[in-house]
TrEMBL record:
InterPro entries: 6-PGluconate_DH-like_C_sf, NAD(P)-bd_dom_sf, P5CR_dimer, Pyrroline-COOH_reductase. It comes from Sphingomonas xanthus. Catalyzes the reduction of 1-pyrroline-5-carboxylate (PCA) to L-proline. It comes from the Bacteria. It catalyses: L-proline + NAD(+) = (S)-1-pyrroline-5-carboxylate + NADH + 2 H(+); L-proline + NADP(+) = (S)-1-pyrroline-5-carboxylate + NADPH + 2 H(+). It is an enzyme of class 1 (oxidoreductase). Pathway: Amino-acid biosynthesis; L-proline biosynthesis; L-proline from L-glutamate 5-semialdehyde: step 1/1. NADP(+) binds at residues 14-19. One of its GO terms (biological process) is L-proline biosynthetic process. Belongs to the pyrroline-5-carboxylate reductase family. One of its GO terms (molecular function) is pyrroline-5-carboxylate reductase activity. Residues 158-263 form the Pyrroline-5-carboxylate reductase dimerisation domain. Keywords: Amino-acid biosynthesis, Cytoplasm, NADP, Oxidoreductase, Proline biosynthesis. This is Pyrroline-5-carboxylate reductase.
Amino acid sequence: MSGGTGFPVPTWLIGCGNMAAAMVGGWKAAGLGFDAVTVVRPSGRPVEGIRTQVDYPVGDPPKLVLLGVKPQKLDEVVPALEPRTGPDTIIMSMLAGVAANSLAERFPAVRGVVRIMPNLPVQQRQGVTAVYGADAATVREVLPLIELLGMAPVCAEERELSVIGAVAAAGPAYVARFAAAMGLGGAGLGLDPQLAAQVAVQTLIGTAALADDTGESMADIARRVASPAGTTEQGLAVLDGPDGLQPLVDRMLAAAVRRGEELADAARRN
Ligand SMILES: NC(=O)c1ccc[n+]([C@@H]2O[C@H](COP(=O)([O-])OP(=O)(O)OC[C@H]3O[C@@H](n4cnc5c(N)ncnc54)[C@H](OP(=O)(O)O)[C@@H]3O)[C@@H](O)[C@H]2O)c1
């Protein structure tokens, strides 16, 4: 069980798509009960073990709202949700690129706004969820729920949350692409494509487990694999070259951060 951590009564999950469902999976794995929770989603598609409905619940205002819609849907949600919030409501938003002050303007009567930036491995309680809020007491209140899902760095500056988002929230997609590319590369060298893909994925899993078990840095692991003048060293020389991996990763992260800034601008203008 979770050492007494639970959902405030009542808690509303607004939207339960990919990301919110992954968080729900992590909370279920942590043994949390969902009696206090209602999911509101337009499809009404049931979320197993949780009251799910199309309309907003009647009765007391929510103590906690987890906003799990796409950023572009925010202004569809606000007119219905805002009047149902109260002075004890905490809005916890996972919307990429929508700044805390843009949210506070849309929900002027609530107790506080906390932004989170989770990643999909929260489902396995191996996630990274960056947390940011202007009010430290409000952050402290939601933090135990987030900590059940893995690493939960609290950001002093909102920009830090965007950067962690670019590295960790988007990260599973980047790591997955790299592993897929390794598999495709193996197939290009003549391996059966399915075997090549499996070998690449298991290498990813094994390397992560090795780092987790030993606490070794990724640099140390790479050093341990690459014996002087061996095959790995030749491969690393390509990755470490001037047109190698780091400049590519820098460009990739910069593109994601830039898109976050565009979304933030759009949310401010609306
Ligand atoms: N995916 C990630 O890895 C990731 C990582 C970090 C942050 N995020 C953030 O998480 C948020 C959701 O992303 P996602 O990938 O989970 O999207 P998604 O799978 O498309 O889920 C969106 C959810 O919003 C619901 N929804 C749409 N309109 C609504 C409305 N008017 N009222 C209530 N619910 C509504 C949908 O309901 P139905 O299911 O009924 O259609 C769906 O459950 C985004 O803001 C994104 O920036 C995602």
